[in-house]
Amino acid sequence: xxxxxxxxxxxxxxxxxxxxxxxxxxxxxxxxxxxxxxxxxxxxxxxxxxxxxxxxxxxxxxxxxxxxxxxxxxxxxxxxxxxxxxxxxxxxxxxxxxxxxxxxxxxxxxxxxxxxxxxxxxxxxxxxxxxxxxxxxxxxxxxxxxxxxxxx
Length: 152
What we know:
alpha+beta; seven-stranded antiparallel beta sheet; about 40% strand
């Protein structure tokens, strides 16, 4: 069984504080996700105002043929204005571990996304990754980079 890695680094001309405020709110995820994914946060909005370890967030996504899937992640680690980690508890992956790192740099902030993921179904999951999953994930993160450049 293969574990795959996806990494993206982006610099934006905003403060560390502004970047942290934006990215640590699950309510902003829909704005930086391609529309075709049908991404919707379904958690009680009252509990999404401030991120904390142990926070559970639920979504629906439509990654394949517009078929809605339930996805639940947990924020497992938070170090204010440095990093946070979300891990899938229920969803399309066998394993999903997504690190979000933030660092103040000259002229703004550098953000690094590091995703480790594993697909279900053994060798069939490996084939699916080669055929479309990897390309779809890269497309989602490339879209985020473009969208964030527009927003900031």
